[in-house]
Amino acid sequence: MKRQSLLLIFILSAFNLATFAGTDKPQVIIKDFKFIPQQITIKRGQKINWLNQEKRQYHSVWFEALGEEEPDYIFPDESYDREFKTTGTFPYRCGPHPRMTGTVIVTD
Ligand SMILES: [Cu+2]
User: Which of 3, 39, 57, 100 is least enclosed by beta carbons within 10 angstroms?
Assistant: First the structure.
C-alpha cells in the first residue's frame, strides 16, 4: 500500500514537470552583447521572452524594420515579452548597440 502511494506521487510529479515544460515560452538570452540564439524559429501566436543576463548593461529589442518605436530598455535580470501574430522573418536590433542583431522566424 505504501509502495503504491509512492509510485502514484512519482507519476504525478513527472506529469507536473512535463506540463510545466510544455508551457515554457521560447527564450532568448541577452549576454555579452549578444542575442542567444541569434536566430529563433517559433510558431505563429507564440511569445518570445528575452532575458537580460548581463551584470550591468541594459539593452533593447527593437523591430526597427517594422517601423516600430524602440521599446523600453531591458535592465539586468529583467525580461521582455513580445507576441508574434503573423508569419515571416523579422530582424531586430538593440537600440543602443546597432551591431547587436537577431532574427525571429515565425512559421505556421
Ligand atoms: Cu544592447
Answer: 3
pTM of the predicted model as reported, rounded to 2 decimal places? 0.78
Q: How far apart are CA 97 and CA 60, in angstroms?
A: 9
Q: How far is the CA of 47 from the centre of ligand 1 (A)?
A: 21
22-70 pLDDT, tens digit per residue, is: 457 899 999 999 999 999 999 999 999 999 999 999 999 999 999 999 9
Q: Give the CATH H-level superfamily of domain 25-107.
A: Cupredoxins -  blue copper proteins (2.60.40.420)
Distance 88 CA to ligand 1 centre (A): 24
Domain boundaries, the chain: 25-107
